[in-house]
Design brief:
With about 270 residues, the protein is mainly α. It has two domains: about 210 residues; about 35 residues, no CATH class. Helix content is about 70%, strand content about 0%. The radius of gyration is 34 Å and the shape is globular. The C terminus is likely disordered.
Length: about 270
Amino acid sequence: MSRAQESRPVLLSAATAVLVLATAASLAAAGSLVLDAAGGRMAHWVLGRAAGLTSYVLLLLLVGTGIVLAHPWARHLRHPSARTRLALHAGLATFTLAFTVLHVVVLATDPWAKVGWMGALLPMAAVYRPVPVSLGVIAAWAGLVTGLTARFAGRLLGRLWWPVHKVAAGLLVLVWAHSVLAGSDVAALRGFYVGTGCAVVALAVTRYAARTPADEVGELARDLQRVPSPAVADDAAWSDDALTGLRPERQSGRAGRDTAPTRPIPVVGRGPWR
């Protein structure tokens, strides 16, 4: 492997880190401007709610691209390439994390929200709607574990990331319930939540109901188990022929031996040729 190829992962990691820092700085600056312009006790809540909705949309796209990556129909897609789809999935994960952090920080520092740092980091520690807020806290920690296991897949954690990733789509259910139950503007966004939830469920149904190459291999193996092996079929044929007094010709060296004409065999010391 050349030095240029070896340096690509390092450059990609550095670019990702810079992108995350730039995004966090931009969000912090934008939040500060919004708070200064809006003023009042509702400014924190509005900014936190906006960050939460943005992270929810990004999570929808993240789960959707993840399902498409593992979908059996994806092998028929030519554009974008599998590498591009994987890069898009990783980029969405980065921005989802950034907006989730902004959502947590803003609400944790808002005295009017009655969430606090304890409520933002620990389940059932918030004064405001503790159960819905706890759903979001659990989803945030589980999403962080999912991202870390995927980030270090093949290095420190081996194949642990794959079973974790398979259940990661269920985190969207927790986030959906958190958004519906903890949000103060659910009535205005009820159609949005119902539509997006149904869309992801429909995509997941097509993923897990579709025939995969593994399913086809399993069906082929079951069909082969129903067919008798050549050795068993050959022995059965010889048994039937023995009952009728026939001897079939085999092609694996027995044909010449069974059908060749016999010759007299001389017996030494016992008289003439027979």
